[in-house]
Structures are given as C-alpha cells and as structure tokens.
Amino acid sequence: MSEQAAWPLDDRGAAYGDGLFETILVRGGRPLLWDEHLARLARGCHVLGIPMPAEHDLAAPLAEAGPGLEVLKLTLTRGSGGRGYRPPAAPEPRLRWQLADFAPAESRWQTGVRVRHCRLRLASQPLLAGIKHLNRLENVLARAEWNDDAIAEGLLRDDAGRLVEATAMNLFWQRAGRLETPHLARCGVAGTLREALISRLDIHEVEAGDEALTNAEAVWLGNSVQGVWPVVCLDDAAGVERRRWSLGVTHRTFQAEAHALLGYPCP
Amino acid sequence: MSEQAAWPLDDRGAAYGDGLFETILVRGGRPLLWDEHLARLARGCHVLGIPMPAEHDLAAPLAEAGPGLEVLKLTLTRGSGGRGYRPPAAPEPRLRWQLADFAPAESRWQTGVRVRHCRLRLASQPLLAGIKHLNRLENVLARAEWNDDAIAEGLLRDDAGRLVEATAMNLFWQRAGRLETPHLARCGVAGTLREALISRLDIHEVEAGDEALTNAEAVWLGNSVQGVWPVVCLDDAAGVERRRWSLGVTHRTFQAEAHALLGYPCP
pLDDT category, B267, cuts 50, 70, 90? Predict the structure, then answer.
C-alpha cells in the first residue's frame, strides 16, 4: 500500500467532512470508469465550491500502480483556512491518495448475496444528494446495524420509506421486464457504475418503496469496485426473511453488461 | 497556538467525519461549562458507539493553557480500522486538540447583531440530532451563503420551515413574555450554553416557524465561546430586511444570565 503524508490538524476535511472522495478500480495501472469518476468529482466540487484539480494531478498516483488489481482512493478537501464553518475566500484544496491491492468478492458474483433492510432512514438533503462527500456518518451507522458476515449489505430507505441504495452500493431491480434504480434527488450517492449503466442500458430512475423489491423478478447491488452482486435473499430490519430469488439468465445478462465495464468476468 | 500531531490518512474522522468535537472556552487554564461539554461528548460517543475517553485525558491539554482567554478544540474520532464504512469491532478512538488565544466579539454583545435567514434547509436525521459530530457540510454551505461582514449569523430552518439554530450558535427568543428555543429532536446541535441556560431558566423547547421571530419581543443567539448576541435586525434569505428590535432590559437580563456562566461582563 502506498500513500501520502497525513492530514494537518486544521484541514477542513478532518474538521467538518468538508471534501469529497473517489474510490477507483485500477487494473495494471489503468483506472476503470475514469471519466465517470472525474465527472462525479467535478460535480461535487461545483456543489461544495471547491476548485476541481487538474486531471494530471488526480492521475499522478497511477504511476505508482503495479501490474495487478488495485483500488485508488482519492480524497480532496477544501484544505485549511476560513473562520470556523466559513470557507476561505480562495480555498487551496488538499489532495491525498491511497493505493491498495484489491481482490473482488468473486463468490458473491457467482452465488449472489443475502441483504437486509436497515433501520436507519437517510435524511433528505437535495443540496448534497448524489455527490460523494465526506459526511458519511449515516453510512457508518447503517453498516453498524449488523455483524453477521452472511449479510453482505444493508438497504437504505429515506424518511418517507423510499428505496435509495445500499450502504456502499447502488441498487437495481427488474420489475415487469423493466430495469429500475432509485432516483437520487434527495439523498444517496450516484455511483459511477450506476451512471455508466444508465447511459448504456434502458434503466429507469424511479421513486419506489419496498413493494418494488417484493414484485421484482431480479435485484442487484453494484459498484465500480466490487462489480455486481445478484440479491438472492432479502431480510427485514429485524432479520426476518422477506423474499428469495433464484438466479437466472436475467441476473447474468445485467451482470455481464456491468462486468464488461470493469474488466470482470461474466459469472 | 499549541497543537498535536496530524491525522493519519486512514483515520475515520478524516475519511467519513466519523467522530465528534467540542469547542471549549478556557480562562486562565480553567474550562467553562466543562460538565456540559463532557455530557454532550458522552452523549455523542453513545450515539456513535465510540468509547468515551477518561476525563483526565480530555483535560490534559488544559495544562498547556496560559493565563488569558483561550479556546480549546477537542476532536475525538473512531480512530483507524474497520472495513470501509463498517466500524472496527473494538475501536481505538483518537483524540487531538488545539488550543488558541481567543477574544470574543465584544461589540456584538453591546450593540447586537444583524442576521439573515439561510436558504439551505437542514435535513432531518433524528439519530444524529443534538450531538456535535464531524459531519458539518450543511453548516459550511449555509455559512457560505453570505460574505457581507455586517451579517453576523445565518438562521437555519428544517425542511418543514421550522426554526432550528444559527450556523454556529443556538437561537432563543422571548414571545408574550415566555423564553423559547427550538426543539432539536430532528437536527441541530444542542449547544452547551443552551443546555446550561435551560437547566437554570424557564426556557421552553418549541416547534416554531418564522412567525415566532416576527412576534418576538427579543431574539438572541448564543454559544459557549462567544456568549450571547442580541439580534437587532433580521433579513430574509434574499437580503431584504424583515424585522428590527430595539435593545432593552429584556435583552440585557438574558444576556447577564448567560454571561455569568462564562465569566463575561454584562454589557
């Protein structure tokens, strides 16, 4: 694992979560979905009012990458300065990176995963929806709701009970032959794999509650690092099983589209 | 200014805002409202599942304090470890502190302040309401809404238009002779000065919209570092003046109660 110097004590990222991050799959030094990662980071910079770094600065850590599969984590903060919450007039953003060897959870591609509903409801903050900012306490608290390693992920709903995402992955399903994923206008992170799939497939962004999953022919979780996991079992927040799915060709077709973008095999 | 070593790159505070902070007024090495700060930190630790440090560790930086007025900032994170958002089973919290000379904005005690409504609406997240966690992007974005130094603070409402707080201070008013402050069950930070005043005065925690201020005889902002600022002018989010107040004995009485707790004079 290579990484850089630490965060100064007065960095606004450490003080207020005043920054953004991207977690990028790297194969043989080549970043996957790089354009989507740059686009999301730029969107976050625009929302927060942080100057977007030059692409060559963001790509510089790739020179340290080895021949295998790695994950590059880029963290960009507003830097130091300002007075309390007040941001400095001319922020000097601070960029740090970590590069680590990576192996995806291949067995989850093959056999699918069991997931559960989380009790925590995501708060609605349209200003911050979609971007990958550093205020992630909701994700941390949701992920702390279970310890059973047989549960791969937890599904998150908003305060009105609408499905949003999983703690670290986006959510997709097929209902009546139609591919759908939650609309992320109020909360949630718009994953780069989700963006890439929406631009390539006929995926509808919808507002939907639990009934969407109850009625779904197939459900998947996915992100740009792990690829796509078919969901084979859904528990409620009390751990009671609510629905099972058998893996079929529908599951594999969607997975193949996603994995082609990441250089992963079709299970 | 004395301070400690930096944050490691893998610290969860820097990565996710997975931690808490306290900002404490210190006079001649003696912390003000210390019990209230400890109580809020303990409440935050309980909510986030972070072990509460021993009081002597939290108080250790006070040994570095000089004879004058200073502000001690304590930041406590869940430390390193865990896997992604998943917290480590046995977190080893990391405590850092900064101690800086301080002078309160005395002229604001005397002449009062002009404030404005912010456009940003605070998201409702009951799980995190009241505690002083490190996910403060809403405060940063709200504080970035204005640059005019004549505006001392911005008032924040929730998504239903209920008054909550100011970006870095709590809000109080008197209406029909009754002291009131917003209920903080859904969002906002329960300031230590607010806690101390509620336990000493007959202050009612209420749900109220803008009409509470329109009808108020007096309005104040306060926190444990700056003391209490009477509000003499309120602008809306477009900068249009909505209401003015003349300073009177009501303002000074409340201010005197608060300033007695902080060792500040009664203006």
Answer: confident
| Residue of B98, B135, B159 with shortest CB distance to A17 | B135
Q: What is the largest distance, in Å, between two alpha-carbon atoms of chain B? A: 57
CA dist A150 → A231, B57, B76 (Å): 12, 39, 32
Which of B120, B124, B137 has its CB closest to that of A17? B137
Distance of CA B5 to the CA centre of its chain: 25
Cβ-Cβ pairs closer than 8 A, A with B, add up to 150
- Kindly list the structural domains of chain B, giving each domain's residue range(s) and its CATH number in brackets, ordered by start: 2-101 (3.30.470.10), 106-262 (3.20.10.10)
Q: What is the pLDDT of residue A38?
A: 98
Contacts of B15 in chain A (CB under 8 A): 21, 75, 134, 136
Q: Within 10 A of B84 (CB to CB), how many other CB atoms are there?
A: 15
> Which residue in B7, B16, B86 is closest to A9 by CB distance?
B7
Q: Which two tokens stand for residue A80?
A: 């130091």
Gap between the Cα atoms of A14 and B148, Å rounded: 27
Contact B6 A3 (CB under 8 A): no
Q: Report pLDDT for B29.
A: 97
Distance of alpha carbon B70 from the chain centroid: 17
> In one letter, which amino acid is B225?
V
Q: Chain A residues with CB inside 8 Å of B131's CB?
A: none
Could you say which of B8, B85, B141 has the minimum Cβ distance to residue A167?
Answer: B85
Q: Given CA atoms A31, A34, A40, A41 in this order, what sign does their dihedral have?
A: positive
- Read off the tokens for B68: 């004058």
What stretches in chain A show pLDDT beneath 70? Answer: 1-4
Q: Quick: pLDDT tens for B185-197.
A: 999 999 999 999 9
Q: Render pLDDT for A186-230 as a digit per residue (tens, 0 to 9).
A: 999 999 999 999 999 999 999 999 999 999 999 999 999 999 999
Residues of A in contact with B78 (CB under 8 A): 140
Question: Are B143 and A86 within 8 A, CB to CB?
Answer: yes
**What is the end-to-end Cα distance of chain A in Å, rounded?**
29
Can you say whether the dihedral through the CA atoms of A237, A239, A242, A246 is positive or negative? positive
Please check whether residue B242 is in contact with residue B235, taking contact to mean a CB–CB distance below 8 angstroms.
yes
**Is A14 in Cβ contact with B14 (below 8 Å)?**
yes
Q: What is the ipTM score, two decimals? A: 0.97
Closest residue in A to B23 (Cα–Cα): A84
Q: Coil, strand or helix: which one is A108?
A: helix
- The answer to whether B124 contacts A159, with C-beta atoms less than 8 Å apart, is yes
Name the 3-class secondary structure at B44: helix
